[in-house]
Amino acid sequence: VLLTGILLLSACAGTPQPMRVGAEADGTQVELKVGQQLVISLESNPSTGFGWHVPFVDEGVLTQVGEVEFTQGEEAEGLVGAGGIESLTFEAVAKGTTTLTLNYDRSWESVAPEQTFTLTIVIK
Question: How far, in whole angstroms, is CA 118 from its chain's centroid?
């Protein structure tokens, strides 16, 4: 039993927990370890055509993992056209510093985004 516990703890210690941030982190700096994931969750309403998009990411240090995930709020569950939260996941792949900008826009329009979210990421 003791050996099993030690093996489980050592396996968990090798993988850092994902860092989760929301709108309050806009304009700030976060530190990640190589291999650590960053989950950014922001309010969104895709039924309007708007969504959070990554115009550019320095894939030498940070890569997007998977697709954007949308979760409708409990109070709006089942309501057509209701907003919720979009979550984007990134993984730190190498040491370095990068600025990540997310645009809240309609990807087919050539106008300034409705909102932006910027985060400086330091990977150690």
Answer: 11
